[in-house]
Design goal:
alpha/beta, Rossmann fold, single chain, 2 domains
Length: 445
């Protein structure tokens, strides 16, 4: 196959131009890793401000640090654009766009399909297209490929997948803020829609990733990523439910988990919290639930886990109301500061953060709500939440003026000693106040 042989040679020699569609939490570190692997990169994004920032060497994703973007901006092998007509010039197109849920919890593939159509408009022989966005099994073969082919100009000659052009799925495994693994050191799954596509995609990623794991099909790779996130969602739901059972018994669920974790086999610790956030765990299990309806199978574990996890902000607010009542204060009119707006510690990522819903619920019950998060100085625009709020400093005067501090996210930079010393009441959903000494009354929720 001439197209296969030529593309294989170009990948192995480092000549293959790689187009990264979507320069966000997944696409930008992947672009950096492939660039470090010796490949030329052309980044694509619909957000002009990202392109400007990249050209100026400014990183809009703080957790990645300034060095990554600066190294790309200085390189002759990296450029970025909003002009998707240039996709015809790349040898490899990798799609790294969001896969959110619709308003009825149904999969929203609009970003994937729009990207596929953009690729399809200039699709030519000798190109490899890889989808990295997390989705349900069958998306790459049954949704993305038809969208690509359907966008080809009328009169364009026929192209055969696996012979003229090639398609694969390789799920992203980014975890913003994690220091123990990087894009380069995190094992990479790769599954092609055919053997030739899988081989080329595996060769591509082996230029940048230390351990690449080929699997038999794109569907296996898609299913593996869904399994990873379902596993976490179900186990987090389990400890959240355990928290709601043990708390009325006067048993500290965090101490229980730490005790169980001393067993060196057969147990993996998961920790409760105020709800799920981020780009994967609150969303991806529902993709499989939706797809399972096609084969007529219920997804009882997944749906129950979803019910428990999505109910946690309500549980936290109810516990806050109870704590205030025990402290002689009604929720209505209470001054409550939410500590932590990001969805996880030590990042500025607010995607699907439970803190936003907690703030809404507190306000609905009449509380006067503020927030503190030094990593998120102003409440950002979100799909479901829009507020004119700014992070408040943890001064002794501010803390003393509050009725309650509600801990949602436990950043390392947060001044826990000040909270313990000056806040009258603390509702802690993260066990952040463990060992803190002060006058504050601490209630775990």
């Amino acid at each position: 196959m001439p197209a296969f042989d030529d593309l294989k040679r170009r990948i192995q020699s480092g000549e293959a131009l790689v187009g990264i569609i979507g320069l966000g939490y997944v696409g930008l570190p992947l672009a950096h890793a492939l660039h470090e692997g010796g490949l030329p990169i052309l980044g694509f994004d619909i957000d002009e401000s990202k392109i400007v920032a990249l050209k100026e060497g400014r990183n809009y994703l703080k957790h990645l640090g300034p060095e990554m973007v600066q190294s790309l901006s200085k390189s002759r092998r990296f450029s970025s654009t909003t002009d998707f007509s240039r996709l015809g010039g790349v040898d490899v197109a990798i799609i790294c766009v969001p896969t959110p849920l619709g308003k009825h919890q149904e999969p929203d593939l609009s970003f994937v399909l729009d990207s596929a159509r953009a690729v399809g408009r200039t699709l030519r022989a000798g190109q490899l297209v890889v989808l990295e966005s997390t989705t349900y099994p069958g998306t790459t073969r049954d949704d993305m490929v038809p969208a690509m082919l359907g966008a080809r100009p009328k009169g364009a000659g026929p192209l055969v997948c696996g012979k003229d052009y090639f398609v694969a799925f390789s799920p992203e495994r980014e975890d913003p803020g994690r220091k123990s693994h990087t894009t380069k050191t995190t094992p990479k799954l790769v599954g092609g829609v055919d053997a030739a596509s899988g081989e080329l995609a595996t060769l591509l990623y082996r230029r940048a990733i230390q351990h690449v794991v080929p699997v038999s099909t794109a569907e296996v790779a898609e299913s593996a990523k869904i399994l990873e996130n379902v596993f976490r969602a179900v186990n987090i739901a389990l400890v959240n439910e355990l928290k709601m059972i043990l708390t009325p018994m006067g048993i500290d669920v965090w101490e229980v988990i730490e005790a169980a974790a001393t067993k060196p086999f057969g147990f993996m610790p998961f920790y409760p919290g105020p709800g799920l956030g981020g780009h994967c765990i609150p969303i991806d299990p529902f993709y499989l639930t939706w797809k399972a309806r096609e084969v007529g199978r219920p997804t009882r574990f997944i749906e129950l886990a979803g019910e428990i996890n999505t109910s946690m902000p309500h549980y936290v607010v109810d516990q806050t109301a109870r704590a205030l009542n025990d402290h002689g204060k009604a929720m209505k009119g209470a001054r409550v500061m939410v500590v932590g707006l990001a969805y996880k510690p030590n990042v500025d990522d607010v995607r699907e953060t439970p803190a936003a819903e907690v703030i809404d619920l507190l306000a609905e019950q009449g509380a006067v709500v503020s927030y503190h998060d030094p990593l998120v100085p102003a409440f950002p625009h979100m799909r479901k939440h829009k507020k004119d709020m700014k992070s408040q400093a943890l001064t002794p005067e501010t803390l003393a003026s509050l009725d309650c501090v509600l801990i949602v996210t436990n950043h390392d930079v947060t001044d826990w000693k000040a909270i313990a010393e000056y806040a009258p009441l603390v509702v802690d959903t993260r066990n952040a106040m463990k060992g803190a000494q002060g006058r504050a009354r601490v209630v775990k929720a």
